[in-house]
Amino acid sequence: MMFNCEVNKKLLLMKICFFLYDFGIAPINPFLQTIARQRGIPVLYIGVIFTILPILNVIVRPITGYLTDRYRCRKRVLLCVSLINALFTPLIHFTPRFDQNGETEDILKYWQFWMFWGTVTVRMMLWMIGDVLQDTICFEILGEDKKNYGRNRVWGAIGWGISTFLVGGCVDWYSMGKKEKDYLPAYFIAMASLLCHFTLAFQLNSNQTTSPKIMFKDIKMILSNVKVCSYLVWAIFAGIFTAYIWFYLFLYIDDLAKIYHQERLPWIKTIQGFAVTIECCISEIPIYFLSGYILKYTGHMTAFSISFAMFSLRFFLYSIIEDPLWVLPVEMTNGLSFAMAFIAGVSYAAEVAPAGSEGTLQGLFGMAFHGIGISFGSFSAGYSFEKVGSKNAFGLLSYVAFFTCLVQISINKLINMRKK
């Protein structure tokens, strides 16, 4: 009896590229807030930094999508940003720390602060460009089989989860006997993975044969649709909620250890890394693999409703936890909260995009989710963490997410009734 074991080499290469790219980004991105605080930057200013950085998505992602659609250069740009990022990332390690004696108003006088901010900004822009291009190239390779996007994108989540756990353990091991955590292993792992990604991405098949001559006309027509506009609004709210997890979960875990369980401090980076491993390698995998069936059954807007409800539950659980180890089981909700919203957003953009403007529509989703949502969420998280503390901030956000869920369900029903 013969079995068809033929492997789609194009999609296999795409999966490996997703894995290596996220494996190379994950050693740094989740730890940037703790790195910044270790440099002597107050939490409030960390909030300011990670409010302004995501705003760049408003410009970088749509422009990247448009220019690479217009000049048909997705693959070349992806290769460039991957190589530059690999060489640029280790520079963060050499930005010096400084002592500002708790006087946050004097922080802008320090050149070390501006050096750190500038280095992180360039690296984040490179990540944004590569991120939107990989998604667009994946949809290009899939063609009409867009429902299988999640089965390819899941390998990025797996890479991210494995990388953070590996890096957390390496940083804890390398920092034994030192007063502070030394992130040098993280920079080496990031550089090595991105160099491997650069090498393999050469073989990606990105032809961009479709001409985008009528792109602006089609996009204008799409944006005049009420459902599409509401979709962008929900993408913004999903970004706001995600910002609290992406940029402040590790600070929250640090606070739990310092206030309630100081015995966890020697291995706190391992705990944080394992938390992300659970998010990506356990919680997200079923959602990405089954995304085609889930979205076919629920629809994109209902997927957002499920996401907001799970965000509400997740934030409530954060607000009552005292032991950092109890954060680990809570991360099992990441698939139904973050991944559900993300897969709904990316898939809907691909579904409504006119031929030849796939990158532009992915850029618009990135602008809403990353540029506006993540940016506002970073600012509100930094402000609320500073004023009421991490646990209380998550408690308040739980109510906001629940109210957003109710409003989203109501508006979605009104839009559907109007169509009928």
TrEMBL record:
It comes from the Eukaryota. The keyword Cell inner membrane does not apply. Coiled coil: none annotated. One of its GO terms (cellular component) is membrane. It is a multi-pass membrane protein. Residues 12-394 form the Major facilitator superfamily associated domain. The chain crosses the membrane at residues 12-32, 44-64, 76-94, 114-133, 154-174, 186-207, 228-251, 271-290, 302-321, 333-352, 364-384, 396-415. It holds the Pfam family MFS_1_like. The keyword tRNA processing does not apply. Keywords: Membrane, Transmembrane, Transmembrane helix. It is found in: Membrane. Belongs to the major facilitator superfamily. MFSD6 family. This is Major facilitator superfamily domain,Major facilitator superfamily associated domain. It comes from Cinara cedri. The lineage of its organism: Eukaryota, Metazoa, Ecdysozoa, Arthropoda, Hexapoda.
